[in-house]
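Technical note accompanying the year-one report. For the benefit of new consortium partners, we illustrate the data format agreed upon in the data management plan: each record pairs a sequence with a structure-token string. No post-processing was applied to the example shown here.
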Amino acid sequence: MHKRMTITLDEAVYDGLYRRIGKRKMSQFIEDLLRPHVLDTALEAGYEAMAADHEREAEAQEWCNGLAGDMAHETR
């Protein structure tokens, strides 16, 4: 669902946006610029990509298990 919002821009900024992007594409352009700054989707996508890398996950699990084993030996 989209919400309507009114913003104020410097006239030169608006004119440049109008020339480069076009009137009907301004909202999407601004939304695309703002999205990574206000939503955590980039971080979430990064975690999903890392979790999908099964080889890397196996290596990380092996490293964690080795570290836990080392710590167990140190506490005795």
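Partners are asked to follow this layout when depositing records. The longest helix spans residues 54-74.
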